[in-house]
Amino acid sequence: MAGLLKRDELMSIMIHFSNITKQFPGNKALDDVDFSVEKGEIHALLGENGAGKSTLLNILHGIYPDYDGEVEIDGSKVNFKNANDAIEYGIAKVHQEVNLVTELTVGQNIALGYEPAKKGLIDYEAMYEKTDGILEKLGCRFRSRDRVNSLSTGEMQMILIAKALFHNARIISFDEPTSALTDREVDRLLQLIMELKAQGITILYITHRLDEVYAIADRASILRDGKYICTLQIKETKKDELIRHMVGRDVSAYAVRNQELCSSEEVVLKVESLCKNGVFEDISFELHRGEILSFAGLVGSKRTDVMRAIFGADSYTSGSVYIHGKKAEIRTPKDALRYSLGLIPENRKTQGFVKNFNNAVNMALASMDRFCSRGFVNEKKILENCMYYTGEMNLHPADPEYLTEALSGGNAQKVIIAKWMTTDADIIIFDEPTKGIDVGAKAEIYRLMEELVARGKSIIMVSSELPEVIGMSDRVIVMREGRIMGELGRKELNEEIIMKFAMGG
Questions:
Q1: pLDDT tens profile 75-87
Q2: Range 1-90+174-181+204-252: architecture per CATH
């Protein structure tokens, strides 16, 4: 909120970001960001990956104490030196990734570092009594003496919220909290956030799922390329308008095929009666040259397990894989490379790239033979390869020395795609290619997929986003609990039919 604030506006404001600028080496993450969050509201923070959303939250939570500008909480200027300062001030964060000590109890995790003491020792009875009260208030079935390693991901997320309440938080931020949750767990979390709002707690909420924004948010502030764009009332704003502000262009129909379909009759991959005991059984299908074949299904349908088995990352019990009509003996990912088969994994952070390597090296990793001569690595060729794909994919920042781990989710995904494009693989499996990625980056990845099939490549896409499946696919195979339930052609695709198959119809 630029400019002077009136007295009644000041009384209703919980957080005021005033001219916040944050500079990293070679990258200005935030540039003069200025807006306010009202007391007791659910305020969504939206923007593409790399827009500066998480950086702004890290400033609020004391993780980045060095910045220009001012942060005011309830009318008072604050300058937290670390995360503990923010916690003691009543500001807590629920992270996207659940980081808990799984061998400890729930109560020990909730109170960790702030345990009540009695005569110089931890007062476990008081700790468990207080944490049990919070868990009961949250409607959790588990209790404070249970071990964390016995809980689901959704239940672990509840522990993070319980930690915030343990510290009597007045402000709680949520950074992509639903990315690893089931639909039922998402519904429960959104209901809980509404209950926190009813208790007068101010909520900051980062998500790429606009349906969640419309379900719970009062207002949304939008960042783009580190700059503040606007704040909008959700009830008065259409989804297309939100997206347009986020990316600076109209991508309301981003999950569509913009080029002519180019699938041919030539079968490049055939899977026959593939089985893995207790996981999946009787998986049979064909993939054609120039085709995007999608695998749809609910959580637990074992689509990823099938893809990892085909790629050689996991073993299977029986069945056969044929590539270009010949039986393929693929037992390791190295074997898959020999058959010109690539896999962009669902978990990009742990399986897609090496976190201590930069963009140039990560792009070259699967093709090192091309960049080596007489036992020496040609660093110039690696750099040239990186600069080529940096331009092709609009990678930001355009720095080959930049650590891939430090990139936003969408840009990290571009590096992984570039790695497989460097191999010139004929068949690429995209497993949840746009998970946790903003709409602008999604549009660019869809463009790359279309360019690949136009060049004669073939794609298998595993996706849980039905608009993506319907918009991008030539054909769709639907799985449920390790079995294929049905196959649909492009003209048959709609959400109702796919969900019917996915739920066992």
A1: 999 999 999 999 9
A2: 3-Layer(aba) Sandwich (3.40)
